[in-house]
Structure formats: structure tokens, C-alpha cells
Write the C-alpha cells for this entry.
Amino acid sequence: MTKLINRPEYLEQLLQHKDVDLVKIVTGIRRCGKSSLLDLFHQYLSNHGVAETNIIHMNMESLRYRNLPDYLTFYDYVSERISESGKTYLIFDELQAVEHWEKAIESFRLDFNVDIYITGSNAYLLSTEFSTLLSGRYVEIRMLPLSFKEFLTFYEFEDSITIEEKFQRYLQFGGMPILREYQFNEARSNQALEGIYSTVILRDILQRNSGASQETLQKIILFLCSNIGSITSPNSIGHVLSHEGDIQTGKGKNIANKTVDKYLSMLHSAFIFYPVGRYDVKGKQLLKTLGKNYIIDLGFRNMLLGYRDTDRGYMIENIVFLELMRRDYRVYIGKFGETEIDFVAEKPNDKVYIQVTESMLSPETRERELRPLRMIPDNYEKIVLSMDRNYITSYDGIRSLYLIDWLLS
């Protein structure tokens, strides 16, 4: 096996679920490192005394398995190879290539002494039939591109490069692991990102949604990329695009709304964008309308729109959102009266309110960012993250942190 780059946080998650009678499903956008993670796990098993005869590891997108298009042929093929002694580890990459694969997986669970690991590049993998069949018997591990912390260990930097310069590169190139091969060559990196992006659009979206228009999809993607960090709704997006003549609205205005809704759900299913709902902190309820969409990786956004330094505020907000997801928070946009809180992040017994801004140095900005946090009457932690390296670490109990320190903490 080629030398694999470790992603310890994810490997640790797999190991925590190892030998538990749940199907482990690793989901995430194409090329974010899912296959490498399974290779690392395979290596771990081998190094810890599991015989190769007790590991079945198949990438279903390989032509080697072209004769296993459906669950019956797949089941028969794998069953014949399952060891009769001890537990067998079944590792299947890109399983969405097998039709009704979930029936075979459920059958392996019932018929053999196995521990099952699966990856897939779109959320159709977790679609309704599957969830119904395996309800309560699987655990999803969401894999994201590199965090800033991982980015620093993936690349080799000259000693003279400051942490700010490294962060600047992270903002510009994003965290798709494959880009390491190009050592920050912008043209080559963009070509690589374009290749991944096209595959996702063509294979994970258009092939699965017959009748979807590539042109409309592209326009909605560009709109979302330009409006990261802005509150949008299918209605507002439809309105802008209809106004520009991009989506046919027919007689009723509603068609655009429905169309946009459908395309947004395709983008969420292919893990290109993550939707974030709004939470009314005062009324303690989720609001049905108006949310935000954050992109899975800033490299894609910069590849599509060009990198612009003026967008840094929105870009760092996107980075904070992804980092909160990595840290296992459930993330919402907060609303308190008429004011907005960038993020309300929750775990079963923890909650934190976060504002993100490029700088807190001007009194107006400082007041704008602190005001919503000051209004919240509970005692959960409240933080402002910015790019300022200042000595003020707290404003009336609201912590002020340097974003890079927080990302590395």
C-alpha cells in the first residue's frame, strides 16, 4: 500500500465504533479522503492481528466489480469470501454503485459474523429506503476536507512562512487533500478542483436527477458562492434569477421557488453546500424560513469566482461553520429579537454563541458584534472570533479570541 497520510480524528471515530453492531457509513464529498480513511483502517486491522482472509475490502467503482451491479450478485460474491472462523471486516468503498445495496448489507449483518464499513459520495446513500431498512442500525461519520490544523501537517512550509501566511493559503486553496500534489500552484490546483467539481455535478447530481438543467444548477451554485454568509431563501434566489431571466417563472411566481428548492436539495445531497437553519434564541424554536448555505470547501468557491481578498469576512465565517461541524456541534444561525447571532452551536450538554468578524478594532463593529451576545440572558459561553491579535481577551464576560488560535485549539 502507498504511504497514507493519517487523519487521526476520523480514524479514532471509526475505532470507537469498531465491533459495535452498527453499519459504519462514512459520507462526504468526492475526494475528501474517504477511501484513504478506509485504507488506514484496513492497515490498522492488519497491524493489530486481523488476518487478511478476515478483511474484504472492495471499491465498487472499480471495473473489477463490474459484474456486481445489484444486491443479489454482490451478496453472492461477498458471501463466498467471508471467513468461517472469527469476525470478518467488510469494507466497501463507493457503495452507491450497487443497486439496492442496503438489502445485501442488512443480510450480511443477519447471516454472518461481520463488522461493516461503507463510504459514499452523496446523501442518496442515506435515502429513505435505506434508512427504513437499517433504521437505528447504522452510524454516519461525516468526513470533511482538511481542517486548518490538518492543513498545517499535510503541507511542508519553509520556516520563514508565518502562521498568517499559511492561513491565507488555506483561505485561498481550501482543504481538498489532492491539492497537496501541486504545492500551491494555482493553475494546476484549479484544474484539479474543476475535475472534482465536474464529477460531482455530472455523476452525483445530473445523472441522478433526470430533467435537471446543468445551466440552472450552475447559476444557483454561482449565486450561493457569491452570497456565502447571507441569509437566503428559495424564494429570494428564485426572485433574483427570474429577474435576470435565468429561470422561467411561467404565470405563477411559485415555479421558480419550487425549482430552486429542488436544486438546493440536490446540492445538499452531493455535499457541495450545507444548509443551516435559523433558531429563535428567545422563543427557543427553529424557524422554518430563511437560512444560509455554506460551501464544503473554499477552494471550489475561489475556483468558480476567483479569489478576492474583499470577501475575507464571509470566508472566515464559512471556515468557522465547517470547524464547528468537525467538532460535532449542531449548528444554527441565531435570531434574538431583531438581531442576528452568527452561530448557535449545540451539543447534548453544551451550547456556545459565536460572532465572527474580520476585525473588532473599530468601535462601531465592536458594538455591532457584541450587542446580540449581550442581549442573550443565559449563561452559556459567548465568543467573538476575529483576525485581531489584541490583548483584550474579554468584553463584559464575552470572550474575544484570535481566529487562528481557536482553529488550532
